[in-house]
Design a protein that fits this description.
The complex is a heterodimer of chains A (769) and B (160).
Chain A: H1 15-19, E1 35-41, E2 47-53, H2 55-58, E3 63-68, E4 92-93, E5 99-105, H3 108-114, E6 119-124, H4 131-135, E7 159-167, H5 170-176, E8 179-186, E9 199-205, E10 210-215, H6 220-230, E11 238-241, H7 258-268, E12 272-275, H8 278-284, E13 287-288, E14 291-299, E15 305-317, H9 323-332, E16 343-351, E17 357-358, H10 365-383, H11 387-394, H12 414-425, E18 434-436, E19 439-452, E20 462-468, E21 474-477, H13 487-499, E22 506-508, H14 527-554, E23 561-564, E24 567-570, E25 576-578, H15 579-588, E26 594-599, E27 619-632, E28 638-648, H16 655-674, E29 680-681, E30 684-685, E31 703-706, H17 731-743, H18 754-768
Parallel strand pairs in A: 1-12, 10-11, 13-17, 15-16, 21-22, 28-31
Antiparallel strand pairs in A: 1-5, 2-4, 2-6, 3-5, 7-16, 8-14, 9-10, 9-12, 14-15, 18-19, 19-27, 20-21, 20-26, 23-24, 24-25, 27-28, 29-30
Helix pairs in contact in A: 9-10, 10-17, 13-14, 14-15, 16-17
Chain B: E1 3-10, E2 13-20, H1 25-32, E3 51-54, E4 57-60, E5 73-75, H2 88-95, H3 105-118, H4 124-130, H5 142-150
Parallel strand pairs in B: 1-5
Antiparallel strand pairs in B: 1-2, 3-4, 3-5
Helix pairs in contact in B: 2-5
The chains are: A alpha+beta (769), B alpha+beta (160).
Amino acid sequence: MRNRYVGKKIDRVDARDKVTGKALYSADFYLEDMLYLKVLRAPHPHARIKSVDVSKARTIPGVAMAISAKDVPWVKNFGMIFKDQEVLVREKTRYMGDALAIVAAETETIARQALDYIEVDYEPLPVISDPLKALEKESPYIHEPREENCDPGLNPGNLLCTHRLERGDLERGFSEADVIVENEIRTPHIEHVALQPEAGVAKYDKETGVCTMWVATQWLHDIQADVAQALDMKTEQVQIIQPAIGGAFGKREDVSVHIIIALMAILTGRPVKMEMTREELMITQNKRHPIIFRHKTGVKKDGTITAWKAEVIGDTGAYASTGSAVVHQALYMCTGPYNVPNLSGVSYTAYTNNTYAGAMRGFGATQAAFAYETQMDCIAAELGLDPLEFRKKNAYELGSMTPNGQILTTSVGVKDTLEKAAEVFGYKPDQLSKEENGKIRGIGVASSMFGCGYGEGFPDHSIVDLEVTDEGKILVHSAAADVGQGILTVVCQIVAEVLDIPLELVELAPGDTHTSKNAGSTSATRQTIFSGNAAKLAAEELLGKIYHRASLELVKHHPQFLVQEGEIVLQGTETRISLAELAKIAREKGDPLHAEGCYFPRTDVPDEATGQGNLVYVAYTFNTHIAEIEIDKYTGETRVLRVVAVPDVGRVINRIGVEGQSEGGTVMGVGMALMEKQVIEEGITKNADLSTYLIPTSLDMPEIITEIVESGDAAGPYGAKGIGEPALLPAAPAIINAIYNATGVRFFHTPVTPDQVFKAIKDREKKNS
Amino acid sequence: MAKVKVEFKVNGREYSREVEAATRLLDLLRNELGLIGTKEGCGKGECGTCTVLMDGKPVNSCLVLAPQANGREILTIEGLSSGDRLHPLQDAFIKKGAVQCGYCTPGILISAYYLLKNNPRPNRDDIKEGISGNLCRCTGYVKIIEAIESVTEGREGHEE
């Protein structure tokens, strides 16, 4: 069957509003009589708070309210998995982003100035910014100790959790190996740099007791629940209306301004607005976890992997956020898309006094991909094998087993991505670096895997609701957050595809906790699979209802109809009835044309001791990159010239969307490889702005060629799987492997900066001379 | 703080406002005139999100004080289209998939508009240079560059 919309290049449904400046983001909402909020953050990353005195701030003209923790003793802690974060700090600060006081004032300037009049008396405590030190038993506790949960010998106040992977016989595996390669690989704090800073507007209706907010989130209903429990409200008393979202990349999975704006709208009785500054959000909001990987791999001379031992230590900073899940995902993906018969791994998630870490594009799998692709490249070099051939030899195929013990039965395109990438790039085995006029060129390969959806037995699902309006349009209610990736366009495409109607007939209601049901999070590369499937199921149910109603009204057998272009046509006759008319009749007869679809697949909770399960994720996306770089010998500067990106997405829904994700992910990987690190020393960020924390500009981007592999049989609609996070995974390791290819110098960290490359080239020249 | 009178033209329309001397042009546009298409990304002139044209030249409106705009002419994203008719650049951004989250889009469109006004036949490097003051975290710039390229002189879709 030929598709009408699926697989095509489709204009985004929200693009027109975005190019005309009409799209409304959180900060674009202005309510009458609105107060502006500012927050006083911690004076020290780890300090006992003796007192917070807001009395002087209250006397500043234009200040409507100033509060500290003692004014709101009833407010509860929040957090996505562990409720370990305080809205206003009571006894001690754990990082520089902790909130000590909130001011509400008539203007933003007054609110900001009033912060200077708040007096804080505190006693500094020792700061722990190294996760290895945090895990030592003697280190001071950052949180209350939880002995029951702690490995003996580790720190019960700073170890958040431990996860394990065990399969096969590690000892035997290593004894079968000809070569054993051991490396320690590290990744830093990275900032999302979504272009839109965190902001929100809230109002409280005393009559109904409902607090309504316009604020970005990746997961409407989860934030709703967290706000409600923190403020001791019923869930339905918190209404979140989703505005346009200016990028997310994981940043907006966490609470930022949400609880504060709701609290202050309730306390002041007036609408409130809060906008974080770039500096404030870089210090306060979640980061990509820095992770240390200790990999030991056994391999035979012919390149067969026999055993792999992994130790993974993640720094989740002051609060857990999603840290426990991020670090264990780094462990669960630790060997990449390669067959490993004997495997043993452990991961530790540690609290420190650094800015807390949470979700960021890839969610641990990005750090893992850098580590295993560095390790794979080292092994290939050690064995004298071509890096691409070595990967192909070990790559998954149907029937392969993931680190979690899941046997892959569908959509395993990893070998295809490696082969396609080689073909498009013009890759030749054993390619050596080329030097000309002080410029050295190199080529690097990396592949990757990503488990789509929350998996692991989490009750992950999405609900999409459709109704036929009086105008004969299909109104979609979905809470799926479109953070820029284009899920709402995908949902509309699928509805139009199933109903065989023009895309223009599909309309979107804004995501709203009160008019749409849980769509789950825009994370884990899950929305195309989850909300895409839910949309398809809903549209199919609606189509069935349309046939049913039409056959009743026209007194004909349903196979005699066709539903097309918004009409029900009696075949071979002039008789037709519009969807609008049919909807009206259906509503009058008490059976409106309304349908709901829910996709709720079952997955298994992996065994705690071994991390093994049968069906851990609903699908895996694979992606291979080949990068060509050029290094200036005299400055150490690395330029990425060309990247061939070959993701296996199962089936393309919106081609322009998949390409856009691949290109954006690749350039984010250029930043990760060569530029990006939030420098946090002793808990204090040294580069909290965009002239000291650099991301790629248009002058840093390489030529990017995306070729898509469609294995076509994945769990998503029409055989699709996700692309958002996997798009990034192989980019940084491919670039850093290319630096090795160019210079013969191996870097075991990101970012690799010009000074490091320059020094490495010099050291190598000295050694060789 | 002392109030200052600002009389200026925005998107062809005359405005007169009394503002505090330290008000930024960005805030005047957004908070006073309701032109919320211009966005704030960093407040420090680093990201280009708030780019507008002042007397035909691109500025970061977060770094311009409102009184500095007195007697000047400003072009914001709202002034790029005329009624329902989109500027060819806006059309191209939709067709080429140059928009994802859309937050950088108004600023980039203004930079691209300025580029083409001054150089109707830019090559790829000129385009990269022309938008290098505008950060985008979603697209990797590929489709933005393709969109701008598609409306350069001698290409399909060009209308001016």
